[in-house]
Amino acid sequence: MRPSIPARGDRLHDFTATDLDGSIVSSRRFYLRTNLLIVFTHEWPCRDCVRYLQELDHHRPALHAERCQPLAVVPLGSTLVVNWPEHSRPGFPVVLAEQDELHRPHGFVDERGRPSAGIVLADDTATIWHVWETRNDHRFPDADDLLEWVRYVSYQCPECWDRVEW
């Protein structure tokens, strides 16, 4: 049976994984610091997913301005190594996972149990605000839609607003 996709208001599943540089990345280290935009890709290599991550990297300054950290989760199935040209590598963490170990808890597996693509936007308390399920057709949200959601979540925390003190 295929796991369900998380819904708005659900908590993000905590995870720890190794990134492309061999560093340990934990979702918990971002809590109470920044919102998270997690892009789950298909099994490596997937050209469309790579292109989307590169596009997302171009919007990294706008995401950071809204207190949002992008993060990618790449499942390793038949491939054991991710060869990513240094000049086109995103400037945000790209974590590697064994097959579906990080995709399954978030519901991003297809009918045959293989990792599929999707995006989760969670606030700094690990509460999920929006989920895009792209599956195998690569219908990722365009950058403007994604940035609007990021801005919306960023402004939900009154302590974080720029406002004049009374």
Key words describing this protein structure:
166 residues; alpha/beta; Glutaredoxin; 7-stranded mixed sheet; 3 helices; 25% strand
Q: Portion of residues in helices?
A: 10-25%
Give the low-confidence spans: none
The CATH first-level class comes to Alpha Beta
- Tell me the structural class: alpha/beta
Strand order of the largest sheet: 2-1-5-4-3-6-7
Cα end-to-end separation? 54 Å
Biggest pleated-sheet summary: 7 strands, mixed
Q: What would CATH call the homologous superfamily?
A: Glutaredoxin
Number of domains: 1
What portion of the residues fall into strands of 2 or more residues? 15-25%
What's the helix-strand series?
Answer: EEEHHEEEEH
CATH fold assignment: Glutaredoxin
- What value does the average pLDDT take? 85
Count of alpha/pi helices: 3
Oligomer: single chain
Can you count the beta strands? 7
Shape-level CATH architecture:
3-Layer(aba) Sandwich
The best one-word shape is globular
Rg from Cα: 16 Å
Describe the structure.
By secondary structure, this protein is of the alpha/beta class. The chain has one domain: 3-Layer(aba) Sandwich (Glutaredoxin), CATH 3.40.30.10. The protein contains three helices and seven strands, in the order E-E-E-H-H-E-E-E-E-H. The protein has helices at residues 47-58, 60-65, 143-154, and strands at 16-19, 24-26, 35-40, 68-76, 94-98, 117-122, 128-135. A seven-stranded mixed beta sheet has the order 2-1-5-4-3-6-7. A hairpin with a 4-residue loop joins strand 1 (16-19) and strand 2 (24-26). The longest helix is centred in the N-terminal third of the chain and has 12 residues, at 47-58.
